[in-house]
Write a structure and sequence with these properties.
This protein is mainly α. It has helices spanning about 1-10, 25-35, 45-55, 70-80, 85-95, 100-105, 105-120, 160-165, 170-180, 185-200, 245-260, 270-280, 285-300, 305-310, 325-340, 350-380, 390-395, 410-420, 425-435, 445-450, 455-480, 490-500, 505-510, 510-550, 555-580, 590-600; strands at about 130, 145, 225, 230-235. It is elongated. This is 26S proteasome regulatory subunit 6B.
Length: about 600
């Protein structure tokens, strides 16, 4: 005080202003009482401000032993840091003492103390903490109560969540970082981050839940707009209703939470990540953090829901929803699946085969869930008339063919897109329907497609033909297993029960579809009959051609008869010559049959 008066060089100075004094008038009053020997009560609520004020007023040991700096430092080290509740209160009071509290290591020491106690064994906890009511269906943040563990009461592992969530974001980051260093489970860290976000970001609080306690939230319900996903979101930086200071505070909270998310998969839910991503896009968070958050969503994309995936477009895009964002999330999911499937085995050699089979089954199930999610998303966004055919096709074809065992969801999305875009040309409709496999449609979808006037005629024919092939294959399989007419009865009964279970809209159009199927059956039988006739004619022509073209092979009997005929002719000539030379001689006729008989 003497130095300030001396440096002012004002002889008539009667008033001194200490605007930079940390702790304000309350801390100065306590320091003045200490100087005059008046007893003061040190507590967790005033110790941090008094410690910083003593440092500002230079109340060191050089002037007198046991000065205020020594007294406050001893109280911090031996009283505050040994208590859970006092450490929280002191760290909370340091929010108005920057940068003095940071330079005096008060923030660091309180964060280390909180982290050490949070990582302690819950069975050894004997101090008081703020806890939520156990197992409440819809907890409200206003129904908190002070609780101290008793002998019969078991301390839950998340006992420290509520106390830590009252801290400012920078101090919360310091505490979570210290807890990570001490080896806390990543599931608990993720759960504490989710609770903090639900308390400080009103966009992540579901309907029916109260806001945070007094002073813990910088925003109110004004300016929030209802969303079909059941969440209240505050559009910051878009209109004049939300102040820019609030938008900056929320942006800082979102960026800090993204930076301290655990790297392990399933540390937080995919629904929380998508809602955080939605708010990050709305608040114009740094692109690097948004990319990192998109990769985290892609790691567990199979856990997403349609309500969380319907993220509006905040980049002045033509479409109502951010289609490009979902496309990037799907690409990250595919890359993650490929990386997991191609990664080398981390298991013993004897377990490699079993692990590979289970891993393939898990990946296939995840792809099937994502395929159903994408089909539902396409059905929802296809109502947007500004959605281009290319974006729809690219998103529908992003997953491999093995991801879909049934294309009913994709057919619904295509039909919805055709309803919203009636001006598509024939070529564009064929291009749209090319993403669907007609052989993967169910009976209900086939009956609906058979009477759908929006589909191209060629697609309708393919659907009817695929249904006919399915019926023929089913009948053939049954006939191969059981060769009897009585075995066809279950198929008829199943068919009737299937038709009775179909919706009324499909049954109304079954008559027209049945006529088309009967016509195709008749044409198919006609083609089969003509084919058989042509086959028989061809076989007859082939046999005639073989008879004409193939030379006759002489058998051994034919060769013998030819030799006998030659020998007979020679004998007759010699006999004729002898008879002509000796006309009077008695001619002995030679019966040829004896030769034949002897030969035979």
């Amino acid at each position: 005080m003497n130095r300030i008066i001396y440096e002012s060089r004002d002889a008539e100075l009667r008033k001194i202003s200490l605007d930079e004094l940390p702790g304000g008038p309350e801390a100065f009053e306590l320091a003045a009482k200490f100087c005059y020997g008046i007893a003061i009560d040190l507590s967790a609520t005033n110790i941090s401000g008094l410690r910083c004020a003593a440092e500002y007023l230079e109340m060191t040991e050089d002037l007198e032993e046991g000065n205020l700096i020594f007294k406050t430092e001893a109280f911090l080290s031996y009283v505050v840091l040994s208590s859970w509740r006092d450490s929280i209160l002191v760290l909370k009071s340091c929010e108005k003492l920057s940068p003095w509290a940071e330079n005096l290591q008060i923030v660091r020491r309180c964060s280390e103390s909180i982290a050490w106690k949070a990582c302690a064994n819950p069975k050894g906890i004997k101090w008081q903490y703020t806890a939520k009511p156990a197992k409440v269906s819809s907890p409200s943040w206003n129904q908190m109560k002070d609780a101290s563990p008793s002998r019969n009461q078991q301390v839950p592992p998340d006992w420290w969540f509520e106390d830590v969530s009252i801290l400012r974001i920078d101090h919360f980051v310091r505490v979570i970082t210290a807890i990570k260093v001490k080896g806390m489970r990543h599931e608990l860290i993720g759960a504490s981050i989710m609770q903090y976000a639900a308390k400080w970001l009103p966009g992540l609080i579901k309907e029916g839940s109260g806001l945070s306690e007094d002073g813990s939230n910088s925003s109110n319900s004004n300016g929030s707009s209802s969303w079909r996903g059941g969440l209240h979101m505050i559009v910051a930086g878009v209109g004049d209703e939300v102040p820019s200071v609030q938008a900056k505070d929320q942006r800082m909270i979102v960026e800090s939470l993204i930076s301290i998310l655990p790297q392990q998969k399933d540390s937080v839910s995919c629904s929380f990540l998508l809602r955080l991503l939605r708010m990050a896009n709305m608040l114009k968070v740094a692109p690097a953090l948004i990319t990192e958050l998109e990769k985290r969503v892609g790691m567990q994309f199979e856990q997403a829901t349609l309500a969380d995936l319907l993220i509006p477009s905040y980049n002045k895009s033509e479409t109502m929803y951010d289609i490009d964002l979902v496309q990037r999330l799907l690409e990250h999911f595919i890359v993650q699946e490929q990386t997991e499937s191609s990664s080398p085995g981390r298991y013993p050699f004897s377990d490699n085969h079993m692990h590979d089979g289970s891993q393939r089954g898990t990946n296939l199930n995840a792809k099937m869930r994502v395929a159903r999610l994408v089909d539902s998303y396409l059905t929802e966004v296809s109502r947007d008339r500004n959605l281009s055919l290319t974006k729809f096709q690219v998103l529908a074809e992003a997953l491999p063919d093995t991801a879909r065992t049934c294309d009913d969801g994709l057919y619904r999305a295509i039909d919805s897109y055709l309803k919203a875009h009636p001006t598509l040309s024939e070529h564009e409709r064929k291009r749209l329907c090319r993403v669907m496999d007609c052989q993967k449609l169910s009976v209900d979808a086939c009956m609906h497609a058979a009477q759908n006037e929006r589909l191209p005629l060629r697609i309708v024919v393919q659907v009817l033909f695929s249904e006919q092939v399915k019926i023929s294959n089913a009948i053939a399989n049954i006939s191969l297993k059981d060769a009897g007419e009585s075995h066809y009865q279950p198929l008829v009964s199943n068919r009737k029960s299937l038709l009775e279970a179909t919706p009324q809209s499909f049954q109304e159009g079954w008559t027209a579809a049945k006529k088309d199927i009967n016509t195709l059956k008749f044409e198919l039988e006609t083609v089969k009959t003509k084919y058989l006739e042509l086959q028989n004619d061809m076989d007859n022509l082939q046999r005639q051609f073989d008879k004409i073209a193939k030379p006759k092979q002489a058998s051994a009997w034919t060769a013998g008869w030819k030799k006998l005929s030659k020998l007979t002719k020679t004998t007759n000539i010699e006999t004729h010559d002898l008879s002509s030379q000796v006309p009077n001689a008695e001619q002995t006729p030679k019966p040829p049959r004896r030769w034949r008989n002897s030969i035979s």
